[in-house]
Amino acid sequence: MKFWSKVMTIAWKDTISELRTKEITSSVLVFTLLVLVIFNFAFGTNRDVLPTVAPGILWTTFVFAGMLSLNRSFIPEKEQGCLEGLVTCPVNREVIYTGKALSSLLFMLIIEAIALPIFSFLFNVPVLSLQIIVITVITTIGFVAVGTLFSALAINTKAREMVLPILFLPIVIPIIIGAVRATELTLTGESWSGLTSWLQIIMAFDVIFVVVSFLTFDFVIVE
Amino acid sequence: MMPPAIKIQGLTKSFGTRQALRGIDLEIESGKSVVIFGPNGAGKTTLIRTLATIMNPSSGNILVDGLDLKNNAGEIRRKIGIVTHQTLLYNNLTAYENLEFYGRMFDVPELKKRIEELVSLVGMTTRVHDRVSTLSRGMQQRISIARALLHKPTLLFMDEPETGLDQEAIPLIWDPAPDETGRKRTIILTTHNMERGFELGERMLILDKGKIVYDCVRGVLDIAGLKETYRNYTRTNL
Amino acid sequence: MKRNALIVFSFTLMATIFYLIFIYVPTEAVMGIVQRIFYLMVPLGWLTMLAFIVTAVSSILYLQKKNQKWDILALSSAEIGVVFTTLAMATGAIWARPTWGVWWDWGTPRLTSTFILWFIYLAYFLVRNLATEEYRGAAFAAVVAIVGLADIPIIILSISLWQGLHPPALIFESGGLDPKMGMTVGISVIAFTVLYITLLILRVSMRHNEAELRKLKELTA
Known about the structure:
Radius of gyration of chain A: 18 Å
Shape of chain A: globular
Oligomer: heterotrimer
Helix content of chain B: 25-40%
Structural class of chain B: alpha/beta
Number of helices of chain A: 9
Number of helices of chain B: 8
Distance between the termini of chain A: 29 Å
Largest interface: A-C, 32 and 30 residues
Number of strands of chain A: 0
Mean pLDDT of chain A: 92
Largest sheet of chain A: none
Helix content of chain A: over 70%
Number of strands of chain B: 10
Order of helices and strands of chain B: EEEHEEHEHHHEHEHEEH
Shape of chain B: globular
Low-confidence stretches of chain A: none
Distance between the termini of chain B: 41 Å
Strand order of the largest sheet of chain B: 6-7-8-3-9-10
Strand content of chain B: 25-35%
Strand content of chain A: under 5%
Largest sheet of chain B: 6 strands, mixed
Low-confidence stretches of chain B: none
C-alpha cells in the first residue's frame, strides 16, 4: 500500500524530529498541567462542584493543548522551504495531509495519556475508564482532522498563532459538546448505549472533516 | 527520437491581479543545459516553480518528457530534481536522515548504497550523521544537491543555486554527474552570475517582465555581447 | 435600468413590511409590542444562513474554476451576511430580554448557532486579510467557507441534542399563528430576501468595477 508507506514515512520523520527536540510534547505537557492547576484554583476548594465541572475542565484543557500542538505542526515545514520539498515528492497531497495528521495525532494522544491519570489524581475523578479513552481518541481524531488543515493554512498567514484558534474553535464546537456530554454521562455511570448518539456525532464529524480536508488541502499548500 | 525535455505553450501565471508570467512558449531539447537570466521580478523563480510542480499554472500547456503536467504530475516529479537557495532540509534531522526521508518518498532502490554514493560525491562523508542545523550553509547546500540527485532525475532545475554555496562545491553544480542511464541530464538554471552562466549554458534565455525576450545558443555572442544585450532588453522594457 | 427597478422594488417591499410589522399586524397577547421583533428575527436568521450558503457554494466554484467572479460573489455575500448575522443576534437579544428576562440565553439553539456562524464569518474575513501573500487570501477564505458549510449541520444537530430539542425547533416556532401574523412573517422573509439579492447585486457590480480598474492600472503601470 504505497499510500500508507509514504504516510508513515512522513509521520516517522516528524516523530524523529520531535523525539530529538521534544519541542511540542514538553511545552504542551507543561501547559496542560498548568491549566489543570489553574482550574483547580478557579474552583476553589469546593469539592462538591468538581464532578459537575470535571468534564468541562478536561475538555477545555485538551482543546487548548491541542491548539498549541497543532500550531507547531507545520512550522518545521516552513523553514528551509521543506513544504516545497514535500510538494515535489511524487505523492498526492492527501499523503502529506495524512502523514502530518498522523504525527499530530500521536503527539496529542501521548499528551492526553499522561494528562488523564494526572487529572484523575488531582480532581479525584475516575477518568481512566475505557469509555473515556474511546471518547478521547475519537475526539482527538476530529481535532487533528480539522487542525492539520487549518495549521497548514495558518502557517501562511501573519499572526499565525492567533489565526489558528479563531479558525479552529468555532468549527470543533460540536465535538467539544459531544465529548463533554459523553464524558459527563460516563461519570454518572451511564453505559455505552447512553453514549451512542454523542459518539455517532463525533465519528460523523471525523469522517466529514477528513473528507473535506482531503478535498481542500491542495488549495492550501499549493499556489 | 526523444521528446523534448520541456515543451511549454502559452504559459501564464497570475498572482491575483499581478501577472508574473505573460505567455511563455519554449521548447528545450533533452540533454541540453539552459541558463535563464533576468532581473528580479522577471518571473524566473515563478517559471522554475511552475515547471517543478510547486505551483499551478494559470493557463497554458506544459509537457515534461512528453508527459502532460496536468495529468501526470506524480510521474513527472520522479524525473525532476530541484536545487534552490533554500535547502529543503529538516534542521533537526541529520543529513543522513534527511536523505533517507527523501529517498523513501521517491522510492529510491538500494537507498543506503545510493546515499553513500552521493554523500561521497558531494564530499560530506565525515559529517553525514550530524544534524543539519550544525552544518555550515555551504555544507547544507551540498547535502541539498545530494538530495536533488537521489532519484536520478533526468531533469534538474537550479534556481540561483550559487547563493550560499562554498567555493569547492561550486563545480558540483556546474557539472553534476551525468545521469546513470548514460543519458545526459537536462539542466535548467537561473542565475545572476553572467560569467558562470555563460560558461555553462549551451543555450541562454533572457526573461523580463514575464516574457522571454532573448534566446540564443552558445557561440552566437561573447560574454560582452551577452551583457550588452541583457542591458538593452531589460532597459527598453522598463 | 433593471437594477434601478430592483432597488425601487426592494425599497417598496421593505417599506411595506415595516408598515405590516408596526401597524398592520395585531399586537400579540402575551408579549405585547416587543413581539414584533419576531418578524425581523425570523428573516434575519434565514438570511444569515442563505448568505453563508451562497458564500460557500461560490467558494467551491471559485476553487474549481479559478475564475475571479466567484470569489467576488462569495466575498460580497459574506459581507452582507455578517451584517445580517449581527442584526440577527441583536434582535435575538432584544427578543430574549423581555421573554426570558436575560439578554442572552445559551439554551436557545438558534441564538447559539447564529453566534457560532458569526465567528465563522469572522474567520472568513480574517484569513482573507491576514494571508502573507495577499493573492492567496481568497483561496484560504474559500476553504474556510467550505469547512464552515460542512460544519453547520453538525453544529445545529449537536446544539439541539445538547438542549434536548429536535433540530426543526430551531427554525420553526411552535404554536399557532394568527393568519395575519403568518402572512407578515412570510412577506417579511420575502422582503428581506429581495433586499439581500439587491444588496448582493449592487456589491458584486461594485467589486467588478474595482477589479476592472485595478486591471487597467496594472496594464498602464
